[in-house]
Amino acid sequence: MLRSARPTPIADDGDDFHFCSTCAFSAACLESGYDKSQLRELHVLVEHIGPFAEGEHIFREGDAFNAIAAVRSGTVKTYVNDANGREQVQGFFLPGEMIGLSAISQARYPCNAVALEPTVLCRFSFPSMAALATRMPGLQQQMFRLLSQDIGKAALLAGNYTADERMAAFLVSLSRRYAVRGFPPTRFTLSMTRTDIANYLRLAAESVSRVFRRFQDDGLIRVDRREIEILQPRALEALARSVLRE
Amino acid sequence: MLRSARPTPIADDGDDFHFCSTCAFSAACLESGYDKSQLRELHVLVEHIGPFAEGEHIFREGDAFNAIAAVRSGTVKTYVNDANGREQVQGFFLPGEMIGLSAISQARYPCNAVALEPTVLCRFSFPSMAALATRMPGLQQQMFRLLSQDIGKAALLAGNYTADERMAAFLVSLSRRYAVRGFPPTRFTLSMTRTDIANYLRLAAESVSRVFRRFQDDGLIRVDRREIEILQPRALEALARSVLRE
DNA sequence: CGCTAGCTTGAAACCGGTCAACTTTTGTGG
DNA sequence: CCACAAAAGTTGACCGGTTTCAAGCTAGCG
Lengths: 246, 246
Hints:
homodimer, Jelly Rolls, 4-stranded antiparallel beta sheet, 11 strands, about 40% helix, globular
């Protein structure tokens, strides 16, 4: 289950309550023009849980599935351990992004989720959401869309790309996702280790190090520890193009 | 759109109509104990289309999305062309399997689908299905499950596995899926070329050839053109284990 | 037939992994 | 605040699996 480190259901603040701005559902539902009573119904299904400390698990592989969640602040990494005991990182989730969607079919989480920094989540009880969705077609629609999106995402890194292409795609993707959140797209801090990046991109940690160096030597980026500055976004995007399919 | 090579809506044959046995929805809905009138509602959303000839496209990347489909007979390959113009095969679909699920979020098909042999499909209008799902929670549930399943599948080949592991996983997967359909699991015919397999497994066609030979020399399988016989299922499964995560 | 697409085989090059040594950073307790 | 240990990151040398390139083979079909 989604471990409630410190459950803090949001208070209903009268008529002018507002959705948690990070939640993927809020925008969609507001757009659909639902009346307030319906919005309130959705609203009460949401609870904010956390903060989770760095390294703290949100759920583990095999845990019974009962809720999906949106990252409200912080970063989450999902991973599984492969046959050799090595970690396979499946994804990094920034504020506004949903975790747990792949658990629906099995009724169990198929992977582990861990906070990479202090993290707060919005938790949605899935059964309740599904029930509500039968009465709110817009919500059902949005849920279908979210699920379908993730199918496409997973295919991204499945191709056989070079280390450079993978890394470029990784940086461009992060940059864009930060931009959506209102953060500067050319300057951000990595919340994951080099090893995490390597396990995500299916490279050796040493390769990640080498590519970072080469990118810096070529003037594409500036790297200082976890601090990244993208100096030539265009060039990086060109490298990433084949992976991101544009 | 799903091109109707020769639309053949199934006739409503009175009280004892039956679902197309390959459709993923029928079993779920029957289990859920819906009454006949509701089943009939679902029934009329289904139409059989085809046959599509070998090489004929079912939909193309960018086509407007309006329906998902289940393979009724035959085999379908989905693919995209990457930046270098090379084909990236995303999946092979056997009878009973659903295609088009990843199109929901974009309202456009994100890939091409082509028949590898004479193929007949069950077509489901997605908007109609979604509308019906609001009145049939079991159907909604099933749709969520199908979507969620596909998220997990895509991650399968994302790891960095050896050519042997990939090929073993591919053969084991095919074997099991044929078995479910009632075909002998140790003896089947590949409906795709070596190049297709290579593009799916992210290997060079030459590597596919070499692995087949090695597997045969080691007594794991017998290969004759497209005919495959699995001689040592256990050994093959052992090889595939790391990919299939068991 | 003979053409073509699909397939196989061999040799060489290369990318990224592994191993090993080292440096830097982080965190902890005295 | 410093000392020390552990974790994270970097760098170089070497190795091996896959790809690439090139050539030839085979089956299927006009």
